[in-house]
Structure formats: structure tokens, C-alpha cells
Design brief:
Order of helices and strands: HHEEHHHHHHHHHHHHHEEHHHHHHHHHHH
Strand content: under 5%
Oligomer: single chain
Strand order of the largest sheet: 1-2
Radius of gyration: 26 Å
Largest sheet: 2 strands, antiparallel
CATH superfamily: MetI-like
Amino acid sequence: MALSNVVDKSTAPTRKKLGFDVWLAISVAIMGLLFIFLVYPLWGVLQNSVHSDGGFTLEHFTRFFTRSYYFGTIKNSLILSIAVTAFSLLLGIPFSYFYTYYRLKGARLLFIGAILSAMSAPFIGAYSWILLLGRNGVVTNVVETVLPIEMGSIYGFGGVLFVLSLKLFPLVSVYMNGAFRSVDASLIEASSLMGSTGLRRIRQVILRLTMPTILAASLLVFMRAFADFGTPLLIGEGFRTFTVEIYNQYLGETGQDHNFAAAISVIAVVVTAAIFLLQKWGTSKFKFTLKSNRVIEKKQPKGIGGVLIYIYCYALIAIAALPQFYIVYLSFRNSANVMFLPGYSFDNYRSAARRLLGRSVWNTLYLGGVSLLIIIVLSALIAYLVVRRGNFFNNTVDTLSMLPYIMPGAVIGIALVVAFNKPPLAITGTLTILTVALVIRRMPYTIRSATATLMHIPPSIEEAARSLGASKMKAFWRITAPMMSTGIVSGAILSFVSIVTEMSSAIILYNNKTITLTMSAYVAIVRGNYGLATAFSAILTVITAVILAVFLRVTREEDVRI
């Protein structure tokens, strides 16, 4: 009996060691999903890019780089993205500085306006600015009637730069709000004692201390501008970008070349990956953390300087948010195709109701809800694997899950069509493939937010639950996951807003049965039915605003991570 007890005790650790590891199984399962729905589709795009008439060829790449018509699209996208990033920083950093360090009246309203401007559907701003500043736009007609001047064109490079800069500068300001608040007041006082004041102190001290955040915001703005599809499509005219060229080659009405579209997609991934690595290298040069022991006290804006601060902040947000409010206003105007007529009515909404409004709203909310649920579960699990069980395998899972962060949506859309347009998994043209695309594209936001939150939760709390008899999964779902809820909700709400306004991948994947509000509005614009487009866009704007209101209500914070 005694010998039996000794044997049992001596073999107990062996049984535990050889027991089933639920987290290892989860790691393998998530890796499998990433390979099926991300790696395999991208491999298919790569194969198509070097395929022609049954054999291997580099013809498509040669064609792209030797013909200025095509090569110019990448150059245009790079130039545009760099310019948009620069202007967004020039607009966003001063706005955030004034917002953070000055006691502004109506500051909450400024914050909501900035977020709403940044998170609206990507093409709504372009469409609205056409109605305002186009060749027959309201502002254009008023200015040219009252003043003896000719308004410049909203179309082309300048127009795209204008629209994207106004849309994306709030992302910079939102990032910088938290960074500016992290600067310790004692550092500012020390710099003052050393003679560094005013603009010199901002440049030498504050901006250098917040440089990692500036680089992170720059990368986000660059990627958004580089991958944007709707804005250059609507107002680019002669200014061609690679995203529009991918669409034209894959679904163009004048001719389709799927292999060439795949080649452009591969080039786009390489370029964005290079920019991402460059940003990572730049960030590595500023390896430090900021933790404010004493927050800088906000100042009261006074005198002429204070007036200028108010004018700058409110005028900037008013201009940036103008497209959303103007679209809602126009949705109640009478219309006839591309013309808006005198008088107001609900005719545009009645027309929308007869033309897939119910289906569009349902698909939008259904895709958003299902995709968000999957994103929350996978993001929480991946964050735990990375933070608590970090190893090469789990870090690979994290890296693969972040790949879509640097990929244009059109590339993801084409990859999924290539992979899943035939058995055994023929899901092209269904809500399932759209769900997959949305999860892949928008999951990185929630993963990063959940990971950052988990890093601040001590493992001892979880270990205490295990010591009291809770299983690994019970300890995770009952203890750890609720403590991660703030980070998960923060990332998930913003992922949801991005999902319901998604266009660049949806335009490749949608059909009449899976159409969303974003695509319904876009189709109406293309067909010249502006009144119908305003109704779809207004409903989408209201949904976006409600989601953001929920986000602000739940998180009660302003350090958003997008």
C-alpha cells in the first residue's frame, strides 16, 4: 500500500506533463485558421502573379515596371500617401497640443467631431466634397457668383490630398492626445530652467519625447492613404493610384486581367511591408517609455493667442465634419438623378426603401455583429498567447494576424476570391467570404488593444484562481478576460466602425445578395442617383455616430488606439 502511494506520487508530475494542453491546442487551431484564410489565399495571389498560359512567367511584373502607365500608379500612391501623412501631421499635432494642454470650452464636442470625421465611410467625404466644391458644387457656384475669381478644381491630386488629409488628421490627434498627457510636468519645468521655451521647447523636448507615437500615427495614416480606394476613384480623374488600377484590372468594364491584377497586388504588399519595416526601424531609435508622475496642468487660453487657438480648433473640426452633416442635410432634399431640387421630403429614403435598404442595413449589421464576435474571441485568445505564453510559435501567430494591417483591402479581396471560388470551399459570393475578409482586415486593431491591456494585468491573479481549483480556460474566461474587457471593448468598437464602413475589399467580394450600406451608397453614386446615395450615406453616418457614442460611453476615455 505504501509502495503504491509512492509510485502514484512519483508518477503524478509525469501525468501532468503529458496531459492535454488546452492552450497548445488553441495555438494550433488559430494557426490553422490563419493558414487557411490568410496564408493560402495570399499564396494563390502569388501563384497567379507568375502564371501565364500554364507556365511560370515574370511577364506581368515586367509589364508593370516597364510601362510608365502602370508603374506611375505606385509612384502616385507613394507620393500621395507621403503628402497626406505630412499634412495630417501638420494639422493633427497642433490640434492635439491645444486640445491637451489648454482648457478649451466644448472640448468634448471637438473630440467627438474629430472621431466622427476619421471613422466615417472612406468615400463619403469625397462624394460630399464633390457636391460642395465640384464643378457645379454649392460653394463653387456661390464663390464664383459673389467674387470675381475662379475656384480651383476638387479633382485630381490636389483634391485627393485635401479630402484625405481632412479625413485622416484626426487619427494623428487621437494618438497624440495620450502621448502628450504622458509627458511629465517636471521635464517641461526642467527644460524651462535651461532656457528652452515656446516653440523651441515643443520642438526640442515635447515632440522628441512623443516621437514613437508620431511614427506610429504616421504609419497608420500612410497605410490608410495608400490603401484608400473610394477617394481617388471618385475625384482622382487623371490621377491614378494602384488601388484603382487593381480594381480596373480585376473587375474593369473595358477588360479584365486577373493575373496582372495579382502581380500589382504582390507589388503593393511588398511596398507596404517595406514601409512598415522602415517605420519599425525608426521607432527602434526611440526606445523609451513615458510615464507621467505629474500631469501638465492645462492652461487657460488668453488674449489673441487664445482666440487663434479657438479659431484653429473649431474651424478645423467644422471643415472636417462638414461632409457628414451636409450628406444628412441633402438626404432630405428633393432630387432628380444628379440634381437636387428645391423643397424637402422623405422621397430619397422611400426610394432607398424600394432599392435594397432593408437588405443593406441587415447585411451591414449582420456582418458587423458576426465579424465582431469572432474578432473578440480570437483577439482575446491571441493576446493571451502572446503575453502569457510567448514562444516562437505563438509569436508567429501574432505576426500572421497582423499582416492584414499593412495590406490594402483590394489585395485581401482578390486573394479570397482566388482561393475560394471553387470546391471544396466555394464561398465566393456569400456572406461567409465577406465575414472572413472583415475579420482578417479588422482583427489587428482589437488584438493590439487587448495585448496592451493584458500586459498591465499581473499573472498572479490568474495563478491564484488556478490554485483554488479553476481550470486554465475557466481562469481565463472568468478572471483574465473580464479584466481585459476595457482594451477589448476599445479595440472592438473601433473594429466594428471600420467593418460597417468597409469598401476596398467589399467592392471585390459583394453582390446583390450581400450588398451593404457602404456598397449601396457607392453603387448609387456610380449610377448618378445622388439623392439615393445621400439616403444610404446618411443612414450609414448615423449608425457610425451611434457606435462611436457607445464607445465613448463604455470606455470613458480619449486615448483611443485605432
